[in-house]
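[step 3/7] inverse_fold.run input=structure_tokens len=321
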């Protein structure tokens, strides 16, 4: 019996599946995704749409949303599902045929169960008590969404299961912290970041990433179509964005380019995302403020790190001029 199953009340189903109940509120099911979208944050809507492959076209400093669903999945595992709105949205919009809404807490699962029933999707979305991916079995899902957790916690969750063995093709991952470390972790695992966004909401910046997990669509040969070898610190296959940024910073050492891409995301840089520019300007102000308050003789390493960060910020900001 797993740790999560041990905490279930008597009579709970084995494997912790909890079928959605018949609504008792009298509310009629809502078939339009605009209804559930109205209850979601802009960040969560972005996360959900990214899973379907909604992408940006690069046009100078302008980002244009290419409308329409480009990818569809048999079942998405929504880890840390909270009220279940992402699962509902994905199924309503046709990005996923079915969904598995998972959470470590019983309270959010109960609310998700109620919402799923109210939207008339009890036959397409299951809820499951699970600590991260612990209760997800091989072949149950081919897509994954994890958003709103710390980067180190998310790494811990991803390390406990082999995503490729589980059958996950694509994941949308949105760490709340340690983002530099998280991006390098994805590279070390051989996962390919297909797209990334910068979302500003309620005074905070978020960086959701669309990540290729399966190896089926990766190149068999080392290097890229522009003739360059991959950057050090990356697996043999590198997403085009990384090499686009290297071409933008052709005078820089590869290690510096990789550090900058880990800080800010190669797709955000290559696209010259205007929200990234705002993030950089804010970061520059914060770094300068901290730098002025430090005594270099007492905080030499911290001062050096801040100067390096400011140098990286200036390099990326120069692309917007």
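[step 3/7] decode complete -> sequence:
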């Amino acid at each position: 019996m797993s740790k999560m199953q041990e905490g279930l009340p008597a009579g709970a189903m084995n494997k912790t599946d909890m079928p959605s109940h018949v609504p008792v509120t009298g509310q009629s099911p809502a078939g339009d995704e605009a209804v559930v979208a109205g209850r979601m944050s802009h960040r969560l809507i972005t996360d959900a749409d990214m899973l379907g492959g909604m992408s940006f076209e690069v046009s100078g400093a302008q980002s244009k949303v290419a409308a329409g669903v480009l990818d569809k999945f048999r079942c998405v595992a929504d880890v840390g599902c909270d009220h279940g709105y992402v699962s509902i949205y994905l199924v309503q919009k046709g990005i996923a045929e079915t969904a598995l809404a998972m959470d470590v807490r019983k309270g959010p699962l109960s609310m998700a169960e109620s919402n799923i029933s109210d939207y008339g999707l009890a036959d397409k979305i299951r809820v499951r008590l699970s600590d991260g991916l612990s209760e997800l079995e091989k072949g149950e899902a081919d897509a994954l969404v994890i958003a709103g957790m710390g980067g180190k916690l998310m790494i811990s969750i991803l390390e406990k299961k082999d995503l490729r063995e589980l059958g996950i093709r694509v994941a949308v991952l949105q760490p709340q912290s340690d983002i530099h470390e998280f991006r390098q972790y994805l590279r070390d695992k051989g996962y390919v970041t297909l797209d990334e966004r910068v979302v500003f909401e309620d005074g905070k910046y978020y960086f959701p990433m669309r990540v290729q997990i399966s190896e089926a669509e990766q190149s068999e040969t080392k290097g890229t179509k522009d003739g360059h070898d991959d950057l050090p610190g990356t697996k043999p296959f590198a997403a085009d964005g990384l090499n686009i940024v290297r071409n933008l910073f052709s005078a820089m050492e590869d290690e510096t380019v990789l550090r900058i891409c880990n800080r800010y995301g190669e797709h955000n840089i290559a696209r010259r995302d205007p929200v990234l520019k705002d993030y950089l300007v804010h970061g520059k102000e914060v770094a300068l403020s901290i730098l002025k308050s430090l005594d270099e003789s007492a905080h030499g390493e911290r001062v050096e790190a801040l100067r390096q960060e400011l140098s990286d910020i200036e390099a990326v900001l120069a692309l917007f001029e």
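[step 4/7] annotate
Residues 112 and 248 are 45 Å apart (CA to CA).
The radius of gyration is 21 Å.
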